[in-house]
Write a structure and sequence with these properties.
The complex is a heterodimer of chains A (371) and B (258).
Chain A (H helix, E strand, L loop, with lengths): L2 E6 H11 L4 E4 L6 H9 L2 H4 L3 E4 L3 H13 L4 E5 L1 H6 L1 H10 L3 E7 L15 H5 L10 E3 L4 H18 L2 E7 H5 L1 E6 L8 H7 L15 E2 L6 H21 L3 E4 L6 E4 L2 H16 L4 E6 L1 E3 L3 H8 L4 E6 L5 H9 L5 E5 L8 H13 L13
Parallel strand pairs in A: 2-3, 2-4, 4-5, 5-7, 6-7, 11-12, 11-14, 14-15
Antiparallel strand pairs in A: 1-8, 6-13, 10-12
Chain B lengths: L6 H4 L25 H15 L6 E5 L7 H4 L3 E4 L5 H11 L4 E7 H7 L1 H9 L5 E6 L2 E2 L5 E2 L18 H4 L5 H6 L4 E8 L3 H19 L4 E7 L3 H4 L3 H15 L3 E4 L3
Parallel strand pairs in B: 1-2, 1-3, 3-4, 4-8, 7-8
Antiparallel strand pairs in B: 5-6, 7-9
Helix pairs in contact in B: 2-9, 5-6
Classes of the chains: A alpha/beta (371), B alpha/beta (258).
Bound molecules: thiamine diphosphate, iron/sulfur cluster and magnesium ion.
Magnesium ion binds next to helix 5 and strand 5 of chain B.
């Protein structure tokens, strides 16, 4: 029988993490994602699966605890929201430099600064373009439902270990806080220490006589070697761009106009597509599921088909830059965003699309009421 | 024919009274001649060898002159960001409670940028061992003022001497963490004379043994010289250390198990 439950996004993610065979969670409370740590603590994971859960003294400590665990071959995770993720950038960069697998969750709230606890998508650049110092990328998954909050825990760990890379689930306060039904899978058992030694020969598990010592470091002062290290990283990112793109097409087959949106905004655009179709507009939605790697080729294909693309984000226009790079001027791309924790409404975004692409250019372009 | 023995004749097993522990690699130490870091490395690795812990040990190297500790120590090691070694070690130890996990850190690493990680790892009573090499200066970056720099002491960033009115006081982090219930064994040692080396070795042995008992955090400070940063010869630096550092940072056990 299927195990179906009504859960909050943050709780579904926490349950997904446990069931994905996670070994350790290290985190620090911050709204709107504290339920993740609370849920894990309340679930007595130590008894359930042997998973360790630790409340750290800061997000800086959390990410470096994750570094320690990951460097020893364990499946480890931390979660936070925007200000906390900013603090973690040092550790994320060190994990990029040492190619350590881990799962990171950002339940985004509005910024800059302390900003607001309301949902936002204004951390796209930070997540997708690097965030910390150095030339690196993470795989970024954007869930648009509570089910995906759950599913992406396992997917995230699998991708992290497949490519020895950091995977970030870029969610937002709306997806984290809303309740929906979730279908749960069987528990995946945690790896035994002996299995880790076999599966991850690079991990620092204690030097045995049968192998050289394992060293996890991002330091190499020889520029020739350091360039090779960086080139190899870039090769890996290119391979990921070629093999791991995920997206969802919604009513795209006959679309003349296209919404491009991820996460919460994609949910709104999905409604807007239905509204538009009822008004006789052939509109579709392309929802990037991986933000890195971005569905560049799919957008380039769609650019040959549609008359215009309307990016919708709860930001001042971040993802839209990747949309424009993808279509490379082949079709007009407009941005519309709400800021500060305001979620746009379906008719609002549909009106924007109509104003931008369908109504005569002489008419006044749509101006948002408040900005 | 010379009466002198050749080096081949001298280097015979029956003549061997002291040798490099097999847990130090062949790599030439990157430390300045006369620096205490090398001796501290040797003592720790020798103890791990004697306790037969190589396969159970995971070490964490800091940012500082000892950033390359993993080049010299023949064990599995992780290099941590500046000051974060206690958090990194926490992550390892929580997931591998049966391994021997240690950090090796300088004073800038442990008592300035990493103060938060140090205090909270100590306060949680993490079952890890911290080796803390206090030379009162930032050796690696060229001799700037450290949290442990003595009042009046000249460094690259306190060229007229540390003025406590504007630069604050040296931080006695070891006394501070000894007050926390999470620490089990806290001691301050030196490695500049044969006698101090013998005492430091005993302290290191205890700090490793106690970790097995899961009683809490063990902390071994080693007050050491930085002859380059202090702009002295190795001999001068050791004398200066005895006359100036030891009165402020007195050697001996600060917290011992009851
Ligand atoms: C985040 C960050 N800030 C600053 C530095 C530069 N830095 C490298 S080592 C060091 C000081 C190390 O001093 P200490 O810990 O006392 O070690 P020592 O070299 O004296 O053994 C500093 C400031 C760095 N690597 N990372
Ligand atoms: S700079 Fe100082 S601490 Fe660093 S190796 Fe030289 S003497 Fe030792
Ligand atoms: Mg120092």
């Amino acid at each position: 029988m299927k195990d179906i439950r009504l859960m909050k996004g943050n709780e579904a993610l926490a349950e997904g993490v446990i069931r994905a065979g996670c070994d350790g969670y290290f985190g620090y409370p911050i709204t709107p994602q504290s339920e993740i740590l609370e849920y894990l603590m309340a679930n007595n994971t130590k008894e359930r699966t042997g998973m360790i859960v630790l409340q750290a003294e800061s997000e800086i400590a959390s990410i470096h605890m994750v570094y320690g665990g990951a460097a020893a071959g364990k499946r480890v995770i931390t979660s936070s929201s925007s200000p906390g993720i900013s603090l973690m950038q040092e550790g994320i960069s060190f994990m990029a430099g040492t190619e350590l697998p881990c799962l990171l969750v950002n339940v985004v709230r509005g910024g800059p600064g302390l900003g607001t606890i309301q949902p936002s998508q204004s951390d796209y650049f930070q997540a997708v373009k690097g965030g910390g110092h150095g030339d690196y990328k993470m795989i970024v998954l954007a869930p648009a439902s509570v089910q995906e909050m759950y599913d992406f825990a396992k997917l995230g760990f699998d991708l992290a270990f497949k490519h020895r890379i950091q995977v970030m689930i870029l969610s937002d306060g709306a997806i984290g806080q809303m309740m929906e039904k979730v279908e749960l899978d069987e528990q995946i058992p945690r790896l035994a220490d002996a299995e880790i030694v076999k599966k991850y020969p690079w991990a620092t598990t204690g030097k045995t006589p049968d192998r050289e010592r394992n060293i996890i470091t991002s330091l190499d002062l020889n520029p020739v070697k350091q360039e090779i290290i960086n080139q190899n990283l870039q090769k890996k990112f290119k391979h990921i761009q070629e093999t791991e793109v995920r997206f969802e097409r919604f009513m795209c087959d006959d679309a003349e106009y296209l919404f491009v949106a991820y996460g919460s905004s994609a949910r709104i655009c999905q409604k807007a597509v239905m509204l538009g179709r009822a008004r006789g507009i052939k509109v579709g939605l392309l929802r990037p599921i991986t933000l890195f790697p971005f569905p560049t080729n799919e957008l380039a294909r769609l650019a040959k088909q549609v008359k215009g693309m309307q990016a919708i984000e709860m930001s001042a226009g971040q993802m839209v830059e990747d949309v424009r790079l993808s279509v490379n001027g082949a079709v007009p791309v407009e941005h519309y965003g709400r800021l500060g924790g305001i979620i746009p409404a379906p008719d609002e975004v549909l009106n924007v699309l109509e104003q931008n692409f369908i109504h005569s250019k002489k008419e006044k372009r749509y101006e948002p009421a408040t900005y | 024919m010379s009466q002198l023995l050749t080096s081949e004749e001298i280097c015979q097993p029956e003549n061997m009274v002291y040798h490099r522990t097999c847990l130090l690699t062949d790599a030439a130490l990157s430390y300045c001649p006369g620096c205490g870091h090398g001796t501290a490395h040797r003592l720790i690795m020798e103890t791990i060898e004697e306790m037969n812990l190589q396969a159970d040990t995971i070490g964490v190297a800091p940012v500082g002159c000892s950033v390359l500790a993993y080049d010299f120590m023949d064990i599995d090691m992780q290099q941590a960001a500046h000051g974060r070694a206690p958090a990194v070690a926490t992550g390892i130890k929580r997931l591998y409670p049966d391994k021997f996990v240690f950090t090796y850190q300088g004073d800038g690493d442990l008592a300035a940028i990493g103060t938060g990680e140090t205090i909270h790892a100590c306060n949680r009573g993490e079952n890890i061992t911290i080796f803390f090499v206090n030379n009162g200066i930032y050796g690696m970056t060229g001799g700037q003022m450290a949290p442990t720099t003595l009042p009046g002491m000249k460094t690259a960033t306190s060229p007229f001497g540390r003025d406590t009115a504007t630069m604050g006081y040296p931080l006695k982090i070891t006394e501070l963490i000894a007050n926390l219930p999470g620490t089990y064994y806290v001691t301050r040692q030196a490695v500049h004379t044969p006698a101090s080396v013998r005492k430091a070795k005993k302290a290191i042995e205890k700090a490793i043994q106690y970790q097995k008992l899961n009683k809490g955090l063990c902390f071994v400070e080693i007050v050491s010289n930085c002859n380059s940063g202090w702009k002295m010869t190795p001999l001068e630096s050791n004398k200066w250390m005895e006359e100036n550092m030891f009165p402020f940072y007195p050697l001996g056990d600060i917290k011992v198990p009851k």
